[in-house]
Design a protein that fits this description.
By secondary structure, the chain is an alpha/beta fold. The chain has two domains: 235 residues, Aspartate Aminotransferase, domain 2 (3-Layer(aba) Sandwich), CATH 3.40.640.10; 99 residues, Aspartate Aminotransferase, domain 1 (Alpha-Beta Complex), CATH 3.90.1150.10. It contains nine helices and 14 strands. It is globular and about 65 Å long. The model has no long low-confidence stretch (mean pLDDT 97). The structure holds pyridoxal-5'-phosphate. The site of pyridoxal-5'-phosphate has 12 residues, from helix 3.
Length: 361
């Protein structure tokens, strides 16, 4: 890497590909001869229209999004989608199924309780969210309007190893794994993701929504929190996060250059395997998540000793490997290794692990 940049293992906002930042910098002051920055353009100008239309079509192509789905570029983060999904869908029957496999899915369920009855279809809290419940353990409510789950659990470092089978639409938080591998969009009713993990900068939230869902927001639902408003106005009821959308376009161009999602998935698997293998063969570090459920994006580990963990994190920072501290609710360490983390960063982290361990034998 150039520009004296460091390896940033933050869970989000996280690293962006260096090529994307270089291109953004080169286009910052004068975008394609317009004499202004994308940040300064009217969202209703023809120049900007060209950008948003092309970003949407790139995302549709790369993720293979079927035509009967809308792609929305919203604000408010994934957290606002915890509310919005429930506000727009739960009233059909008054209840919904939620699977609790970590902090964010818990927050989504708690938010949904304001708008209807939440059935906890499954929870892995009994073993500190270290596993993913099996299909046969899901206690589905026959009356549910939808089933909500979080595909990749950013804080604990686990990931669903199968797509749940239900008779109702799947609503899925993919904030920390979207664009890391191909997924079958047609299996979902709604997919949402805050951009700041794998798509671009904070401030943009991407929502992929099936147009035929039975939206039923109550009368008093604020206009911006209604999917039908956003679908009808193509994310332009008000000013969308214009620069974030542009930057997502640059990230998508980079994914194309890398060979698309199949190739991204291959690289991500290799990166994760290198790190997990090293940690599995360690007599100092322990991994928190059972093997079949390990995340490819967030690797959580600990020595089991807070003081030693702190030494590890401090020494890593001094070596240019930053933000390895685990989330405050999980403790230990977490290496977030999204698309933009180069293989070089994983190798550097493994070298540091080798050194740290050797010094303590
Ligand atoms: C980061 C994250 C969130 C929260 O996203 P915000 O954009 O900060 O609201 C929700 N869910 C998952 C899975 C996340 O990784």
């Amino acid at each position: 890497m150039g520009h004296n940049r460091i390896f940033n293992f933050s869970a989000g906002p996280s690293m962006l590909p260096e090529k994307v930042l270089e291109r953004a910098a080169s286009e910052l002051l004068n975008y394609k001869g317009t004499g202004c920055s994308v940040m300064e353009m009217s969202h209703r100008s023809s120049e900007y229209d060209e950008i948003i239309v092309s970003v949407e079509s790139k995302l549709r192509r790369i993720m293979n999004i079927p035509d009967d789905y809308s792609v929305l570029f919203l604000q408010g983060g994934a957290t606002m989608q915890f509310s919005m999904t429930a506000m727009n869908l739960i009233a059909k029957t008054g209840c919904a199924d939620y699977a609790i496999t970590g902090s964010f899915s818990q927050k989504a369920a708690t938010e949904a309780e304001k708008f209807g009855t939440v059935n906890i279809a499954a929870s892995s809290e009994d073993k500190k969210f270290s596993y993913i419940p099996r299909q046969s353990d899901l206690k589905l409510d026959p009356n549910a309007s939808y089933f909500h789950y979080c595909l990749n659990n950013t804080i604990y470092g686990s990931k669903w190893d199968y797509v749940p089978e239900t008779d109702v639409p799947l609503v899925c938080d993919m904030s920390s794994c979207i664009l890391s591998e191909p997924i079958d969009v047609s299996k979902y009713g709604i997919i949402y993701a805050g951009a700041q993990k794998n798509m671009g900068p904070a401030g943009l939230t991407v929502v992929i929504v099936k147009n035929s869902l039975p939206f039923c927001p109550p009368e008093d639902t604020p206009i911006l929190l209604r999917y039908p408003t956003m679908i009808k106005n193509k994310s332009m009821y008000n000013t969308p996060p214009t620069y974030g959308i542009y930057l997502l376009g640059l990230v998508l161009d980079w994914i194309d250059e890398m060979g698309g999602l199949e190739e991204m998935a291959k690289i991500n698997r290799e990166k994760a395997e290198m790190l997990y293998n090293r940690l599995d063969n360690s007599n100092l570090f322990k991994l928190g998540i059972e093997k079949p459920y390990r995340s490819m994006m967030n690797v959580t580990f600990t020595t089991g000793d807070d003081e030693l963990d702190n030494q590890f994190i401090k020494g890593a920072t001094e070596s240019g490997l930053i933000s390895l501290k685990g989330h405050r609710s999980a403790g230990g360490m977490r290496a977030s290794i999204y698309n933009a983390m180069p293989v070089e960063g994983i190798k550097r982290l493994i070298n540091y692990i080798d050194k740290f361990e050797a010094e303590r034998q």
